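Hi support team,

I'm filing this because I wasn't sure whether my run with 1,3-dihydroxyacetonephosphate finished correctly. The job status page said complete, but I'd like someone to confirm that the output block is well-formed before I use it downstream. Pasting the exact inputs I used:
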Amino acid sequence: MSKLIIGNWKMNVGVRESLALARAVLLGMRGKTFAPDVVVCPPSVALTEVRKAVAHSRIGLGAQNLFFEDVGAYTGEISGRMLAEIGCGYVIVGHSERRNLFGETDEIVKNKVLAALRHRLIPIVCVGENEEERKCGEAEKVVERQLRMALDGVRFSPHGCVIAYEPVWAIGTGNAGNPADVVRIHTTIWRILSELMERTLVDSVRIVYGGSINSGNSYAFLREQAIDGLLVGGASVKISQWSEILHTATQVIESQQ
Ligand code: 13P
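And here is everything the job wrote out:
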């Protein structure tokens, strides 16, 4: 399977910068045969402009968040229905910044996954332990709880789902995880998914890693079979870093053909 590289631009760029970034990403992928699957997640105000820029290309468009209701008096919220309407294909759900800064519980995350699937958006479900949990040796336990809660009662369709393992201590710290540890957690995630859904559906789920990925460390993660791709934050808004990560992914895919 090809690798999947997702850029989470967070709240780091405005509309004009998002558009410039999207054009640069397009340019960087031109003519590449084995380029990875690419999804960019600009801030919501830039989604429409970026969609126009990436239309008719292989670049997927993702939102960074959604609300779990479809319509109603929810001032300031954006529904899955709206995201589908403007041409999003993906949506990040349960990012640790949303869990920690905006009080998103496992229950809310599950409702958001359901809302995404209702509107045929591919959810990019984020799970991961924090520093304290890691020190207590509870990483697997936390990831298992988050995953089981997020997918509880979810009926999957083959159109896909992405699980992003993003340990909180690795996000924005410059301290990317150790690939061997990440492979271990990804294997756990795969085992849990196998209990929750049919084998053919499990094979369509991509398990990606995120946390302080940059052009220097991306190869160590991408070369692992158990790591289907990367969810990149800071380095995804630096076009030289981002281009190198895409180049590395292309090389890995070529070498694994
Ligand atoms: P950084 O790559 O900046 O650590 O962020 C990772 C992340 O949170 C992606 O969703």
